[in-house]
Known about the structure:
Layout: E1 39-40, E2 48-55, E3 58-70, E4 73-76, E5 82-83, E6 86-87, E7 93-97, E8 107-116, E9 134-138, E10 148-149, E11 159-164, E12 183-190, H1 195-198, E13 213-216, E14 233-238, E15 241-247, E16 250-251, E17 260-263, H2 269-276
Parallel strand pairs: 10-15
Antiparallel strand pairs: 1-12, 2-3, 2-7, 3-4, 4-9, 5-6, 7-8, 8-9, 11-12, 11-14, 12-13, 13-17, 14-15, 16-17
Amino acid sequence: MFVSALSLGLATAGTVAYAAQGSGTSGDSGYQTKIIGGEESTENYSFIVSLQKQRGDDPDGHTCGGTLVAADWVLTAGHCVTTTAGANDPGMYHVRVGSLDRTQGGEVAKVKKIVVHPGYKYQDENRGSADDLALLKLSSKVSKAPAQLAARTPAAGETVKATGWGYTKATGNDPSQLPVKHREVDLPVLAPDTPKCISNETDGDAWGIREGDFCTDNPDGNAGTCGGDSGAPALTKVNGRWQLSGVTSRSVGDCGTTPDIYPSVAEHRDWIRKYIG
């Protein structure tokens, strides 16, 4: 069984627990994610990021989402840029910032350094990890406005907006079928002790919530993140302004039908600020 992260292209139909990252090629983690049950974004988010690298004949293959958190720093999921050997070569990656179309527009910059959260332990076995975060230092500053970091974790009963370029169907496994246009879906936050946030019948607590995470439900049993959404922002609006509240990490089970798990930005704010200032 594949790991439950939301990277691109590794999970197959019926896979339990996914992560939102990558392509299934050498150097990808195996995590998967997508936006299921959502719609194309119409608001221009200056801080949204498509993390890209060579995939087959495509030099701009989408791998994960991310969020611009400073002029030259992007926050994404740790599993998006690591393997069992540690952090990948930053030269593999570049980012497109601030465009709803992952193939054009916005600003493009190369990645020159990867800083993985010290608490994150990449695993290629069926076990999710806490602190699933990484910061990407860009080779040059961009002019797009970064996201504001949330000061608190979303509470049960509140709503977050999950975003990304992940697959729109749970059967997605072909990177060429990823949506070009950015998508989003509103998801309700569950209490962290909700049983289905902790475990499922197939994998137990392998991909469940950890300390520092929050968990969202699946409206109508068919909405949530999936392959390609890993690392993308979960947003909340405060005083009319979007804030970065979480980073898409994994599902407790199948895409769109089981809760999604996000490291809370507020819980990891000190670590983020240590690098971005």
